[in-house]
Design goal:
alpha+beta; Transferase Creatine Kinase, Chain A, domain 1; eight-stranded antiparallel sheet; two-stranded antiparallel sheet; 13 helices; 25% helix; globular; ATP-binding; Gln_synth/guanido_kin_cat_dom; Creatine kinase B-type
Length: 472
């Protein structure tokens, strides 16, 4: 079993109503969806790795949430979680992702040349109505995103997550079963991955295999291809910490070259001071002290199997086994979001090609897009953001409404639950699923330009009512 609250024969002896958690004071998407009836229906189910309903909801049960901040309240332990517990996950996903339906299909676009320039509309003259200037529709042009005002935009960043198919997600992985993956024969860039060993002697029927998994086969319909049950060898909980085994010693990404060339650093080999310096410089993920992360099992065997790879300029980074197998990040000072996004797309494409050449692939399906641990990151998993100085707009009563209409969200200077020091906010896209990568970056670029225009108005003591956008 992957975690201490996993179902077992003893737990199932108790009535479902006795095991159902009290969610009356909770404010998260899971609590909105889960009912006693649904709990009773799903409590005896588990994925091939042993992940259960209680594992899915534990972080949401332990963390009631903030009265004004809606958290997700659930996590996946493996790729199969979203199918085995779809009666719970589907409505959570629909609620979190703005009505995304079980029959919807996700789209992907990693071509940075599709970003467009949106020129500011003229004001005044015939555009005035009722004493206020009316904004005209912006014009479009190619090659946008490289002109965010550096007087306001301090830095730009694009990140996403990726999960390696066939392995448990970090939430579920057990360090004791990772030994085979840590040997050099599993390292990408050293040798192709060996075929999974058989889970039973060849004389045994497939139905007796310890790890049976549905895989796409030709001739499917509906949400995607038809699926056939096939034996993949050992259970996923015997193939954990995939990227660490693939990346130990810096071999996993050693094929990257040019401005992407870099080195892998294991957290276990770092001193506390070295770790803290990378954290303070916003290059490395923080230690898992958040109640949300702790309750969801993200601190298992810390810091074993965690690390960071970055290029020589520290503008392209890959986090290993934080919340997801891989967290790919492109970042730099200033407002050239197009350059950041271009590096992101190029690096991500090279990483996927590298993994495919060694017979690994990312978790993905036509409905959910790229599959990650938290349902909030499904689809693109993409967060494009800027650190931007908005001392006046940040104090304006309509700031939150403007961000909502632009489909953007704000964090403090240091991230979630931090203050905006000196009026510096972390502004990023609110959506992940149902929009392409290009569409999300475009939303950020266009929205940031408008926020800067509003800030400039307020600096001059002028009103911004005519700049308030319609809901996107």
């Amino acid at each position: 079993m992957p975690f201490s609250n996993s179902h077992n024969a003893l737990k199932l002896r108790f009535p479902a109503e006795d095991e159902y958690p009290d969610l009356s004071a909770h404010n998260n998407h899971m609590a909105k969806v889960l009912t006693p009836e649904l709990y009773a229906e799903l409590r005896a189910k588990s994925t091939p790795s042993g992940f259960t309903l209680d594992d899915v909801i534990q972080t949401g049960v332990d963390n009631p949430g903030h009265p004004f901040i809606m958290t997700v309240g659930s996590v996946a332990g493996d790729e199969e979680s979203y199918e085995v517990f779809k009666e719970l996950f589907d409505p959570i996903i629909e609620d979190r992702h703005g009505g995304y339906k079980p029959g919807d299909e996700h789209k992907t676009d990693l071509n940075p040349s599709h970003l467009q320039v949106r020129a500011a509309g003229r004001r005044g003259g015939a555009g005035r109505a009722g004493g206020r200037s009316r904004r005209r529709s912006p014009t479009l042009g190619p090659q946008g995103g490289d002109d965010l005002d550096p007087n306001y935009v301090l830095s730009s960043r694009v990140r996403t997550g990726r999960s390696i198919r066939g392995f448990c997600l970090p939430r579920t992985a057990a360090a004791g079963s990772a030994a085979p993956l840590r040997s050099s024969r599993w390292k990408v860039g050293v040798a192709p991955a060996p075929a999974p060993p058989p889970c039973l002697p060849a004389s045994e029927p497939p139905a007796a295999c310890s790890y049976l998994q549905a895989r796409p086969v030709p001739g499917g319909s509906g949400l995607g291809p038809a699926r056939a049950t096939v034996c993949l060898g050992p259970r996923p909980d015997h193939a954990d910490w995939a990227p660490t085994g693939l990346g130990a010693g810096g071999d996993a990404l050693s094929s990257l070259d040019g401005d992407l060339a870099g080195k892998y650093y294991s957290l276990k080999s770092m001193t506390d001071a070295e770790q803290q310096q990378l954290i303070d410089d916003h290059f490395l993920f923080d230690k898992p002290v958040s109640p949300l992360l702790l309750a969801s099992g993200m601190a298992r065997d810390w810091p074993d199997a965690r690390g960071i790879w970055h290029n020589d300029n520290k503008t392209f980074l890959v986090w290993i086994n934080e919340e997801d197998h891989l967290r790919v990040i492109s970042m730099q000072k200033g407002g050239n979001m197009k350059e950041v996004f271009t590096r992101f797309c190029n690096g991500l494409t090279q990483i996927e090609t590298l993994f495919k050449s060694k017979n690994y692939e990312f978790m993905w399906n036509p409905h959910l897009g790229y599959i990650l641990t938290c349902p909030s990151n499904l689809g693109t998993g993409l967060r494009a953001g800027v650190h931007i100085k908005l001392p006046h707009l940040g104090q304006h009563e309509k700031f939150a409404e403007v961000l909502k209409r632009l489909r953007l969200q704000k964090r403090g200077t240091g991230g979630v639950d931090t203050a905006a020091v000196g009026g510096v906010f972390d502004i990023s896209n609110a959506d992940r699923l149902g929009f392409s990568e290009v569409e999300l970056v475009q939303m950020v670029v266009d929205g940031v330009k408008l926020l800067i225009e509003m800030e400039q108005r307020l600096e001059q003591g002028q009103a911004i009512d005519d700049l308030i956008p319609a809901q996107k």
